Structure prediction request, 357 residues.
Amino acid sequence: MSIFKKRREDGFNLAFLDVMACGLGAVILILILVKFSANTDIPVEELEKLQQELNATQSQSDGLAQSLSQTEAELAAQSLSLEEAKTRLQQIQLEQQAVTRALKDELAVVADLESAIAAAGPLVADDPIEIQGAGEESYLVGLKVEGQRIGILLDMSASMSAESLIEVIKSKVGSDAQKRSGNKWQRTLRILSWMLARLPSNSEVSVVAYNDTSKVLGSAVSRQSSPEQLRQIVSQARELAPTQGTNLQQALQTMSSTMSNISNLYVITDGLPTYVNPDSGFRLSRSCSPIKGQQATITGECRVSAFAHSMRANPIPGVRTHVILLPLEGDPAAPALYWSWADGTRGTFIAPAGTWP
Prediction:
């Protein structure tokens, strides 16, 4: 009985030791596995990928830092420019204030001079005939009516009725009353009155109106000392109607026969002539026949030829010639030729503004 009990106790002890040994082995195995996992290296590919991402991030950071520095520099430059602009604006404002003060001072001086002029003399000039305007204010600087024996050629051709070619064409089919009321013709009459009102003391004047023919206005020779004779010239001029073409040669011929020993000639016109006298020696051609009734239209070159022929055929030597040109559209050579005529005689050439006189 005792032997059997002892064997049973020995079997229990062996089994316990086996279990403990197995457990210890399992613990050792776990420790080995944990140590192996802790010492395992990171794969090379993963390390390179991380390094590339780090480099890219660093480059991006450097780029952002550079962009930030550039932006700060631009802001600093703009701030400096803004300050310069403010300084310049203040300087301009100071200059403007100084100019405004100077202008006010000049205006005050002008006002004082005007007051002095008004107090010193009459507002109306002592002219032999009455004209529109406030007296001396109607005088044109640069043009002076001078000489003892004065001739005035007044162009009364159709183009003198209006400023533009369209209006000239319209006026050609209108009545004489419409032609007389044209703005350019009314201005021409004012210019004639202006000149007659400013004749030198004790001078003589002859006025010849011309288109394709010519006509002496008033007395053949009128005197500055006779206001009635000058008013007669103005009255007859107002009855004229601007029509037909322009024959400067005929006008010069009439003026030469009307007033001998003329000293100064004044020409009021708007362009070059369109006609010459028949049988006056002009060399006619198919393209240029400036004889009334022979050519419906005329070119600019032909008008130049007609002007040159008029100067050669009927010269007035030794006479100072002054030209008042009211330019006509489509006649570009007129200013140069009339200026050359006036300059060659030591005369005056003007193309006044539309507001004069």
Remarks:
- The beta strands are 149-155, 204-210, 214-223, 264-269, 320-325, 349-350.
- The chain has a mean pLDDT of 85.
- DSSP finds nine helices and six strands in the chain.
- The longest helix spans residues 44-120.
